[in-house]
Amino acid sequence: MKIKISACTIVKNEEKNIERWLESVRSFADEILITDTGSTDDTIALAKAGGAKVNYFSWCNDFAAAKNFAIEQAHGDWIVMLDADEYFDKCSQKKLRQIISKFHKQKQVAGLITPFLNIDVNQDNKILSKAWQMRIFRREPNLRFVGKVHETLLNINAQGDKRDFLVTEDLQFIHTGYSVDNIVEKYRRNLQILQAEIKKQGGVTPRQFAYLQDCYMGIKDYQNAIRYGRLALEHRAESGLVGNERKAVCQLLDAIWQVNRKDYARELEAALTQFPNFAELWVLRGRFLLGKKNLVAAEQAFREALRLRNKKVTSLAEISNTAIESLLPEIEASLAYIERYKPYYEAMAGHDYERAARVVVQMMRELKCQL
Hints:
about 50% helix; 14 helices; two-stranded antiparallel ribbon; globular; Spore Coat Polysaccharide Biosynthesis Protein SpsA, Chain A; about 15% strand
């Protein structure tokens, strides 16, 4: 019996993205369902022209509620729920049905967690970060989203039945929604929703610490980003950050660099002691040491970042959203700089001024030959 796949999304004024989304899901979806939350542009017309069934949901500042409504309209065995500004690459489109079929008979498997790349379409599709999300899951009443922003799919079965969310790197999707021209607007929107939720519930909860840090960092309110970043990490068990502290740590350090650089080195070393497997922290260490002209230690830091970046993810416990992909050009440029100038700085550090002079002369000769 053929497995039925439902492609779902929620939209509002997505006329720039909806046709690409439709093209992405058309190759594997048996039904295409779009839930509109109040579009005033051509999104609905384009969706219908592209063969989608359009449903309507009255927006209430709750992404989980909208997504739960959307999946309740589906009839497939499995749901693929990409946001409108996301799409599977061509290779993944071809493999998706085959991979779902492989797991369909394994009833303990409830969903598949896959990597995705955040890219900036306004900077020639520059990779901003790599992250992991579940966009493929069974259509079951106990699988529902929670959280008004940064909504998460959970197994809400009160019986606590064991279900697996498996990691697979065989699929990958692309996310374009955090380009520089719209990112601040999205952070302000998310912050407003969070603040309204906090007011309604009578105070902030640990689960919201990291989300607040993210929003304040996005709008460059560094003092509040530091405040909520520290809270998120101090209460990471309650805030849900255990195993995924990477972004919060890096954002905290970036905010500290902006407002209090005299404490930066100490904070960075403390973070590395606690999280030595975070490749981004080694890049930050390499960058800092390079600024201090400590090229040998900087090189070691950059190479450790590369080693950690190349480790293969094999389990759910190992996945973590990472910005290391966006840092690769910096790593490569820094290592090239170090290779060129390390002999000079080594000679100067050893007070071997004659050798340093010879190095400078040789570099000047090479530069002259290039002119």
